[in-house]
Design brief:
The protein is 33% helix and 24% strand. The chain contains 13 helices and 11 strands.
Length: 339
């Protein structure tokens, strides 16, 4: 697929192209991942810290295969992914005067669930469903110790480039991939000005680097409290360095990060940004893609991995999945068929 399908344009939105049309064009290779993601008007990001009395792997597997599949049955989501993070890696950057790359271990999130919604109506449908109002929040304490979830301002999140073109990625990314979290310099700019700087002076020039294979920018409001309440899970941010935005960055090799902050733009960067925290993405699990649950979202990853290993293609056919899971197979399509 050519790069013309990967660069970001104006959000298509559900009024410009129906959900079914957008999905059909994607299946035919006429729509890339960036256009699919940029059709969404709202984005939800949650920074999660696992319980410290459970093994990390238990928390992560519960998140994906128990907690996650409930999201795949909730209405309104256009895309839902889970990003498993490794510890911060400050050594990937060159020294920049006034810019910190360090973060205390206790403040480093372990995972990010990221959801996209085509419209405000879809976000509202998601928020009022019993699964998301009651069942999912009440389940979080089984594996999670802390959460901080935020909504990106309308139309703020953008995928500026995606040459990987894998909208339903499952497992380790094929190239080095990072979540870069940005701490604004106190008093340097308003939130709106910082968001413009993050998008236009950081994300957009970085997306033009030939070795940047995927870049999505997600501006965030100042953190006050988690927009998704979860009984028994702490909501205060661990420390003072809250994030006003983050970038998902996939590159050909780790050395690219040094190139991105080199040159005359480094001084301007440190005038607006106090810190960049760099979390490698170990694994990505996509639970919903283009409004429909993926196989992993319906069955959980171990079952899908076993089906693939056995080479049983008919277990992945829609008629079989519909018999097993009913309307959940149709996701957002089912929501839009309701009166």
């Amino acid at each position: 697929m050519g790069d013309e399908h990967q660069a970001a344009g104006d959000p298509a939105g559900p009024n410009a192209r129906s959900t079914a049309e957008l999905r059909a064009e994607a299946a035919a290779g006429r729509v890339g991942t960036a256009e699919l993601e940029n059709a969404a008007q709202r984005a939800l990001t949650a920074f999660c810290w696992w319980r410290d009395d459970l093994p990390r792997r238990v928390c992560e597997d519960y998140w994906r295969d128990v907690h996650g599949i409930m999201f795949a049955r909730a209405p309104g989501l256009w895309q839902c992914r889970q990003l498993r993070l490794a510890p911060n890696r400050p050594g990937l950057w060159p020294a920049v005067t006034g810019l910190s790359f360090d973060v205390p271990e206790a403040a480093q999130p372990h995972g990010i669930p990221h959801g996209l919604f085509l419209s405000e109506a879809d976000l509202a449908a998601f928020g009022r469903h019993p699964l998301t109002r009651e069942t999912i929040p009440n389940d979080a304490h089984h594996f999670m110790g802390r959460i901080g979830s935020q909504l990106t301002p309308p139309g703020g999140g953008r995928t500026l480039v995606d040459r990987l073109d894998d909208p339903a990625m499952q497992g380790p990314p094929p190239v080095p991939t990072f979540v870069l979290c940005f701490v604004a310099r106190t008093g340097a700019a308003s939130t709106e000005e910082f968001h413009r700087f993050l998008t236009e002076h950081i994300a957009r020039p970085w997306s033009e680097h030939p070795s940047v294979l995927r870049l999505r920018v997600e501006p965030l409001p100042p953190y006050e409290q988690s927009v998704m309440a979860s009984p028994g899970v702490a909501h205060p941010w661990p420390g003072n360095d809250t994030y006003l935005g983050w970038i998902e960055l996939a590159v050909r090799d780790e050395g690219v990060l040094r190139d991105l902050v080199s040159g005359p733009g480094a001084a301007e960067l440190s005038e607006q940004v106090a810190a960049i925290h760099t979390y490698p993405v170990r694994e990505v699990y996509t639970l919903i893609c283009a409004g429909r649950p993926t196989d992993v979202g319906l069955r959980g990853y171990p079952a899908v991995r076993t089906i693939l290993a056995a080479g049983v293609d008919d277990q992945r056919e829609e008629n079989v999945l519909e018999l097993l899971f009913g309307d959940a197979v149709h996701g957002l399509d089912q929501l839009r068929r309701r009166p």
